[in-house]
Design brief:
With 336 residues, the chain is an alpha+beta fold. 45% of the residues lie in helices and 22% in strands. The chain has three domains: 71 residues; 167 residues, Alpha-Beta Plaits (2-Layer Sandwich), CATH 3.30.70; 68 residues, Double Stranded RNA Binding Domain (2-Layer Sandwich). The protein is built from eight helices and eleven strands. Helix 1 runs antiparallel to helix 2. The chain is globular, with a radius of gyration of 25 Å.
């Protein structure tokens, strides 16, 4: 890093160093533990019975630690998602259920915002379409921070809610749904987007922002003609809207590349935690019972209020990450 003069090269090397350092630190710790084990083994044969007994007790403690240290290194060396440490684009959309689905989409988005805040991440809304009774028909936001995608990637899919809607006069429980997509924010990934492959339209926004938004053609819609992907942004500045829309487009094209690779490797990935496909019902939030169930790992928690407030979301995310780590370790062992 000291020999690099180009700013981009320094950033790249810094990221590489940050990824390699945990592996190096873990390897040093393991080597030190093994050297200590050898020293203690020699001491256990000492003529002094008290010293030998003390050494044998320490060997027992050390032997209990070594498997965990070896497993930690194996996990660090297992194949990792290249976008694990990336920031992310979060997309939440109302599904089936009309106004209640939009309200639920709003609840989910607030959950992720509060969770992001608790981890020191920043959230910037890129595009929003509000529901008639509240919540969101669609909301897209950029979440900036270290390791955002790695922690949120398993949130992609269909989230189902069972509760009595605020719009229900007779107190009947309804089932509604919202879809969540988490895409890695594209930084150093090379994606070729030709100008002739884009159609850029401007139009008047009908969202919040007062007269300026409503009376100027500031909103931007970009269509990527080869794929049919359409992205929009509707804040006050047309220039900012175009930049934001392009960022979302890059993320979606990058995700298409990831999905294509996933399809090619589908047989090898069957043991992983779901695919994140939006057609999957990944989680149910049952309000009458205060229950959250993640269907991919058969996890059920009875602390729905804290989960939906973002306070206990880690209690769902951590088991998903652990399951994925176990699958990666198994994959590594199969290849050895």
């Amino acid at each position: 890093m000291e020999s690099a003069s180009d700013g981009a090269e320094i950033v790249r090397l810094g990221k590489e160093y940050a990824e390699l350092r945990p592996v190096a630190d873990a390897a040093r710790a393991l080597l030190a533990a093994r050297r200590e084990q050898e020293d203690l083994t020699r001491m256990s044969a000492d003529a002094d019975p008290d010293l030998a007994e003390l050494a044998r007790a320490e060997i027992e403690t050390l032997n209990a630690r070594l498997p965990d240290m070896e497993r930690a290194i194996a996990l660090l060396l297992a194949p990792r998602d290249a976008d694990e440490n990336a920031s992310a684009i979060l997309e939440v959309r109302a599904g089936t259920g009309g106004d209640e689905a939009a309200l639920f989409a709003g609840d989910l988005f607030r959950m992720y915002c509060r969770y992001a805040q608790s981890r020191g991440w920043s959230v910037e809304i890129e595009s929003v379409s509000e529901g008639e009774a509240g919540g969101y028909k669609e909301v897209i936001a950029a979440i900036q921070g270290e390791g955002v995608f790695g922690r949120l990637k398993f949130e992609s899919g269909v989230h189902r809610v069972q509760r009595v809607p605020a719009t229900e006069a007779q107190g009947r429980i309804h089932t509604s749904a919202a879809t969540v997509a988490v895409l890695p924010a594209v930084e150093d990934v090379s994606i070729d987007i030709r100008d002739q492959d884009l159609r850029v339209d401007t139009y008047r926004s009908s969202g919040a922002g007062g007269q300026h938004v409503n009376k100027t053609d500031s909103a931007v819609r970009i269509t990527h003609l080869p794929t049919g992907i359409v992205v929009t942004s509707s804040e006050k500045s047309q220039h900012q809207n175009r930049a934001r829309a392009m960022k979302v487009l890059m993320a979606r094209l990058h995700q298409m590349q990831r999905d294509a690779l996933d399809d090619e490797r589908s047989e090898a990935r069957k043991s992983q935690v779901g695919s994140g496909d939006r057609s999957e019902r990944i989680r149910t939030y049952n309000f009458p019972q205060g229950r959250v169930t993640d269907h991919r790992i058969n996890l059920t928690l009875y602390n729905l209020p804290k989960v939906i407030e973002g306070e206990a979301l880690d209690e769902v995310i951590e088991p998903l990450i652990a399951e994925d780590q176990a699958a990666r370790l198994a994959s590594l062992e199969d290849g050895l």
